[in-house]
Input
Amino acid sequence: MRIKVNANNIIDLVTYLQGYKEYVVTETDKSRKKHAYMIESMAKGKVAVDTSRLKTSIHTKHEGNSSLVGTNVKYARAREFGSKAYVIKPKKAKFLRFRGRDGNWVFVKKVNYPAGRGKKPHLIPSFEEITPKFSDDVERILFSYDK
Output
């Protein structure tokens, strides 16, 4: 295999490649940030709302070449993935008290909370829906450079 290089065009080639690199880095950075905000917005729309605490805590943060979408609410992980089985016991009283399905008061010493209950994913489905759009955008960027 032979490659013929014309020395007169090397400076033009180097200039072109530098411009291409700058364009791709700048445009993919913009696209990454835009799509991270899209994930945030979609996740806020998908999250189950009771007090809006979880919804309002979802935020996007950019660090260097990364974008992070998440929350600092402690129960967010259990809401996204479900939880392990655990037992709920009263802390200060002898019994737990709550209204049953028929509306009458129920008194119990403990409640067995089943595994996986409460699973209502919002962040992962949003990520999975937006990621192909980001990939398409990066592909468009790679092929759209025009000096």
Remarks:
- Residues 10-46 form the longest helix (37 residues).
